[in-house]
Structures are given as structure tokens and as C-alpha cells.
Amino acid sequence: MLYIFDKDGTLVHNIDGERPANTLDEQKPFDDVLPKCQALIAKGHYLAVASNQGGVAFGFMTAAQAHIMVKHIADYIGATTYAVCVTHPNGRKKAAKRESRFRKPQGGMIEYLMDAFGVLPTETVYIGDMDTDREAAEAAGVKFMWADEFFGRK
User: Fold this and answer.
1) Domain 2-129+140-151, CATH 3.40.50.300 — does that match?
2) Strand runs (DSSP E) across the chain, as ranges?
3) Overall average pLDDT of the 89-93 stretch
4) Quick one: which of 10, 35, 52, 130 has the most CB atoms within 10 Å?
């Protein structure tokens, strides 16, 4: 089974409960993430991360910084790979101001990761904390779980 995780609000805390982290110093994993992910790996499951990083399109970070942050949390949980979308249709940076089939709520990142692992939608679960995560899972035809439910958070 392939478990794909959203990053912000799912694997790492949002700043003040709202804003996603824009630096590695701000990026703090939830305490329940590592034990749950280690247990999945021990059972032979694959892990990946799929994250919108629209902060690039607004100039809060570079694409390279966004990749570093997502790779950092992917490595932390033992994920084999990750996918990042740096575009946003309302962004301020011309090169990233556009819609993309990889930007959630589209299913492109999830489909890309399924292809990377050679798994079917029936063998994939996407875990997230926002309606766009749920919609991306639906668009890719995979099962969705809310992060609070998956990790047993209150």
C-alpha cells in the first residue's frame, strides 16, 4: 500500500495554527507523525509526500527552498519520494502564476507518485487536512483520510 501525505497541517504544524512554514526553522513535525510512519514502513508500506507550495508563486520562498523543505520532511518520515507544486493562479511571480494539473485540488501529484511506485488507485491512500486534499484524492481516484483521523488526533 502507498500512503501519500500532505505536508502542512498534516505532517508539520502550521504557524499560529494558520500559516504554512516558509523556512526549515519554522517547520516542526507533529509528535505523532514519526511513530505512525515508522509503523507503516515496518509493515512493508510505501510512503510519499505531495505538497502545494504556493508560497513560491507569492515570493515567500524559492522553488529550491520549497523542495528542500518537502524533501526534509519526506526524509524525516522515511518516505521514498515526494512531489511539489510551486504554482498558484493568483501568485505574484510571473513564472509561477498559473494553474497546474499538479496543484491540488487536481490529482496530478498523486497520479505522478502512483506512477513512480507502479501502484493502482485501489492501493493508495492520501492523507490531508484540507478540502483541497480530499478533492485531489477524489480526482486521482484514491481513498482519502483526514489527518486528525489517521493520526488519532483530537
Assistant:
1) no
2) 2-5, 46-52, 81-85, 124-128, 143-146
3) 95
4) 52
